[in-house]
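User: I'll paste a sequence; please echo it back and then give the predicted structure.

Assistant: Echoing your sequence first, then the prediction.
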Amino acid sequence: MTHILVTNDDGVESPALLALAQALRELGTVTVFAPNRNWSAAGHNKTMHKPLRVWSVNLTDGSEGLTTDGAPSDCVALAALGLVETPVDLVVSGINTHPNLGVDVTYSGTVAAAMEAAIHGWPGVAVSLDDGEPRYWQSAAAAAIVVARQVLSHGLPANTLLNVNVPNRPFAELKGYRATRLGHRVYRDVLIERNDPRGTPYYWIGGDPPTGIEESGTDLAALTDGYVSITPLHMDMTQHRFLDTIRGWFSK
């Protein structure tokens, strides 16, 4: 039977995690292994400086899962290193409570968990839901089933993961699925300086939510147009077209 490992970066108590796990049970056995707290924007952490604690938890639907004081990527690594004994066919990370578009993928703990899956030779899918109210978790969960079926049927190339972003609307209103490239995210961060009660300054990175340039073919454009965006990511971050230029610098 198909075995799917489900994790996230918002914590094991997230209702979005539960919605994803419940939906994916349609495809096989699901093991939930998620952090015990929120790790949003934590990036690709690997815990090396302290022991990792792991314990069982009961989800709100009565099913059992695993949690740890480590990061989302630690959850996948611990599973791959033997804490989950049943062989894993697919790792699905999410549902993230905000979209992960463009260079968001470098910050995202949700995407990091799927990256860790790729490192260990497992197919990995990261699933995120666009902003808005109310929250249509079931739409993202249903889209995740569609994508997961394709991955389980066709597989993924080595060192490859999928970054999936779902419009926040009823599932029946989704227009379809688009294969996309990463778009250009525009951040509006500002540095906020304050003083603590002892008069010592501290700093907070704030600002308005990010926007983006909705260029055709990108994840940003697909999401805006009402399509589920599916972006294949590769762990080889080499800028291959620039290699010859670098060689030219040192060939004289």
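Residues 3-183+212-249 form a domain with the Stationary-phase Survival Protein Sure Homolog; Chain: A, fold (CATH 3.40.1210.10). The chain has a mean pLDDT of 96.
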